[in-house]
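PT: before anyone asks, these are the final sequences, not the draft ones from last week. 565 residues across everything. Please model them as a single complex and drop the result in this thread when it's through.
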Amino acid sequence: MENETEAAAQVINGQVEAHVISAAEDESKLVRDAVRKLPSHAVKELLSMGVCIRCIFRLIGVSECIYSCTSLSTSALSTALEKGMCLEGDMMDNGLRIQEDSNSQHSSEEPELEPNLCRICLGILQFTYHDGKEMLMKSDCANEFALLIAKVVKQEGHQIDSFSLEVSIPSRVMENEQAVWLYMKRKYNSELWFPEQLHSEFISAKDVLKLSITNPLETLLDIKSSLSSAFRIRLTYTDSAVKIKVQKSTEMKECNKRRKTGADDMDTIGGCVAAGTDHSNSCTGEEYVGRSCNGLHNHDFPDLSQFQLEKVSEPCRLTFLCHRNPVYIGGRYLKYSRNVSQTRWIIDDERMGEASVEEIIGSNILPIFHGDNYKFHAAGREDIDVRMLGSGRPFLLEIQNARHVPSEVSIKEMERKVNNLENKLVKVKNVKVVGSQGWNLMREGEAEKQKQYAALVWISRPLEDDDLKTLSSLEDMPILQKTPIRVLHRRSPLEREKIIHWMRIERIAGSSQYCLLHLCTQAGTYVKEFVHGDLGRTHPSVGSLLGCRAEILQLDVTDVKMDCF
Ligand SMILES: [Zn+2]
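LR: through. Structure below.
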């Protein structure tokens, strides 16, 4: 196992290397060309605000293809930008430099090239984050970051043929980018370089991240990305600052109170609220944060020179989640016991019956799919003391997060295994993977289905030949059923019309008062009540039709007429 993982890692590394070598040349040129066209004064301003290079590119309207330059590291981008900018305006002399000291204080006189944590994307587009163990992670390029994701996917052991990438990022990033975009529009839209499309939209941080890592993930996992894929890789970034904010909120309120009474009452500028993770900064009113409040409009910036972004001290926390949409397995089950419930039935910690159909089927199917869990659905249900015979009852097992979809052969093997269980309580047939439409098929069929029963009935007088004729002459007979007394505690009291399609009495040799009643009813008919009448709540009933008392002793479902499975 250890060796396999190592070998897999080597393959991954090899693939990345090959990819890097072939693409690096073209990508460097693409970046050099893009940088050459950038307006140096705007770039310089964004850098001085603490905005990362990928965010600068998208807010200045650099075209999409640049973000999928996967082999380009952040440092290579910095160098390209540095060189490009020097050609334009010799910005190094103005103090533009690569930041070395992570603790150095930001100031507008001394702009940094590539801040530690971007004040717009909070480090997300710098591939910087805290992992689940609070470790600070930083990848230099999209390939390196994708490698980490691919490892997680492979560890999960999913057998997949495509994937879809989902990214969730904190709302603070959207607020930041919206605020800076509006600021840029306000300040630069009259300048020649300002691209037309930026008037209406810019590429979101989420999309840039997807563009950056989709290609390397496709290479590493050797499958294509597809929006309709049932297998989802989900990246969830959560804002670490939210936690700090809650802690600080009380202090902040105190601080704001003081400020309102003081001369320097500047806690808001238009729509920009002074708030921050850095307590000292926001309290002294030195930093004004470009955050949108219920939609920020151009007129919300009375003074462009005051616009600043909140400093980011903590990267986001990132969690990876691999998830496959449910896999549905359809089939029919037979139940041979009068002491097995359909679903797990526990009352006050005590199990009713000796087992359940749900658990017998689920516990045997789940392992071959390597899923997390299962849900059992059936087309109707029978009572615990009613057997399910004949054609069986359609069921659907929903497997959650299956890592493996077994072959038809292994499903047949599993079917044999269930059918050969020693206790012989439950059997299954026609088991197969059915796709999510199986769900609709079962639900639609359920409403219209007919069910056939065999009931052991006792009547209060000897059975006569006329009784057999009376019942068999009735076809598609409507009956009215009030909600049975035995289920009144959990069902609302209603009166329903149901149809008894046909009935046939079979005599039992040597007995005059016991007989077998075969009948076919509309789905949802309470058969026990139809036999004994439920104190007149079901009418007519077998008892009322024969003019005597009728009791039901045992009931079997002998057929569930449905097209599915
Ligand atoms: Zn950024």
